[in-house]
Design brief:
Largest sheet: 4 strands, antiparallel
Strand order of the largest sheet: 1-2-3-4
Distance between the termini: 22 Å
Helix content: over 70%
Radius of gyration: 22 Å
Shape: globular
Number of helices: 20
Order of helices and strands: EEHHHEEHHHHHHHHHHHHHHHHH
């Protein structure tokens, strides 16, 4: 369906034209956020009703995203798949198959998060803003993938900064949560300011904001701009040494928010980064080298720091830093050696990390919700009281550590084969660091797994006495069970998912 109408921009009419289906997922998410806020405020809806409304909006956005798959397969007419204004200063959206794929994963993750929060936020009277902020965060993320002009990209990056800060500091009565939210606001704003500096250099060198036009006019100014965008996205992705916000944010934000950020939001920046940098004059080899070098720092810092952690969510925070390194290493191999199989491995790794990390944070949050503590030493024997949660948390940790027959093992095997395929000394050196970090990480995961099942009568009595709630409802149970099944099934039967991702990568190569 094609629509065209005038809008006022820079004192004159700019024609918005193209296929409305391109922006329909974004419109559904943003419009849904507004409608949910207004309805909940006007009708004083309960937390559970608001969660249901958010789930319906996410389902609509998911359907709209899937509706873009067929047009994106039509390579002959793919250049007609856009929406916006091509006039100077206009905004323009071009969908791409990677953005659609990651958008689908993000919507699925948010379905689980919103369902979980229907119970998890029942003790928080400020639930009104939570679900609209979740929807706006995903809308901003999706818009960053679809944005074809730098100014629109900057605005959407700012949107994710603002909504992310609000979600992290959601429990504003807790001082640590406010500090974490402020730290994220400062660091993420520094990232977007660096992007704005990059836009200045790019516009000075080309006088253009559209990426397709800039790609044919690259010069020293655009390459400086590419470096600025690289730094900006690295901050938002938590790349060492720009990772300092990660531990506090993932530890003190609501568990559902930590699952969203650690699972999909932050790591998605590693896929937006090359879409921008390569069009600004950076070569694939330069980008691949950057990713591979800094991947080693992420892997080492993450696994070493996680060994000393006792708080579940802080442990998972450093684990996330290491997994960002694994993902960077895989993508770095793909770009440096021009290996589509490595890029496919990166997409697969992003997908399974999203589900495993979401499961890990939701189950860790369930411990806090149930017992009021996230310290593993105080959760000894917790499996006696919450066996399902203990099993699900163990499944997530085992998957993240790379135990065979779980999703994480397949992801790490794909990294291993990609590095061997590259074959040169640089890739092998990175592979050695990866294998060492995998072993060290497994040592770190072991006590977190075992202590839930260790018998301690005194600790068990303390847990029984201090339970904040005795039963968990389906709102928490269903997301945890479904995520657990996904981690197990995709580990036992990874081939269909890998084939799907290879089809996505083949479309990227064909465009």
């Amino acid at each position: 369906m094609v629509r065209a109408w005038p809008c006022i921009h820079s004192g004159r009419a700019a024609i918005m034209e193209g296929n409305i289906a391109v922006i329909l997922p974004i419109v559904i998410l943003m419009g849904g956020a507004l409608v949910i806020y207004v309805l909940t405020r006007a009708l004083r809806l309960s937390n559970k009703i608001e969660a249901l409304l958010a789930i319906l909006v996410l389902a609509g956005a998911l359907a709209a995203l899937l509706n873009l798959v067929q047009p994106l397969n039509d390579l002959a007419n793919i250049n007609d798949l856009f929406y916006g204004s091509r006039q100077p200063g206009g905004i323009l959206f071009f969908p791409n198959i990677v953005g659609v794929y990651i958008g689908v994963i993000a919507c699925f993750i948010c379905l689980f998060i919103c369902a979980y929060s229907g119970e998890y936020l029942s003790r928080d009277p400020r639930f009104l803003l939570f679900y609209p902020m979740i929807l706006l965060t995903i809308a901003g993320l999706l818009s960053m993938f679809f944005a074809a002009d730098l100014f629109n990209l900057f605005l959407m990056a700012e949107l994710t900064t603002i909504t992310g800060s609000a979600l992290i500091a959601f429990r504003f009565t807790k001082e640590e949560a406010v500090k974490a939210g402020f730290k994220y606001l400062v660091m993420s704003s520094l990232g977007t300011m660096t992007m704005m500096l990059g836009i200045y250099f790019i516009y000075r060198g080309t006088g253009r904001l559209y990426l397709t036009e800039i790609a044919s006019m690259t010069n020293d100014f655009t390459r400086i701009g590419a470096a600025c965008f690289l730094v900006g996205f690295s901050i938002k992705a938590g790349v060492v040494p720009l990772h300092t916000w990660v531990p506090d944010v993932y530890h003190h934000a609501p568990s559902a928010v930590s699952g969203l950020f650690a699972g999909i939001t932050s790591k998605s920046m590693l896929f937006i980064m090359p879409m921008i940098a390569l069009q600004l004059g950076m070569t694939a080899q330069e980008l691949g080298l950057y990713l591979m070098v800094f991947a080693s720092f992420n892997m080492l810092v993450g696994v070493i720091r996680m060994l000393t952690q006792q708080q579940l969510r802080r442990f998972l925070s450093y684990s996330s830093i290491a997994q960002t390194g694994y993902l960077m290493f895989t993508l770095g191999i793909g770009y440096y050696y021009q290996l589509p199989s490595a890029y496919a491995a990166g997409l697969y790794l992003l997908s399974i990390i999203a589900f495993m990390k979401c499961l890990a944070f939701l189950t860790a949050g369930n411990y806090e919700y149930r017992f009021g503590t996230g310290n593993i030493n105080q959760l000894m024997g917790a499996n006696r009281l919450v066996p399902l949660n203990a099993f699900a948390f163990s499944t997530a940790l085992a998957g993240l550590s790379g135990i065979p027959l779980l999703a994480g093992f397949t992801g790490k095997w794909l990294i291993f084969t990609a590095a061997l395929t590259a074959g040169d000394a640089f890739a092998i050196a990175g592979l050695v660091i990866f294998l060492v970090c995998t072993v060290i990480g497994s040592i770190g995961y072991l006590p977190m797994l075992v202590k839930q099942y260790q018998r301690s009568r005194a600790n068990l009595k303390s847990l029984e006495k201090n339970q904040l709630t005795v039963t968990s409802t389906l709102w928490i149970g269903v997301p945890v069970v479904v995520l657990t099944l996904i981690v197990i099934v995709t580990g036992v039967f990874p081939t269909p998912w890998i084939n799907l991702i290879e089809n996505v990568v083949s479309l990227v190569a064909a465009v």
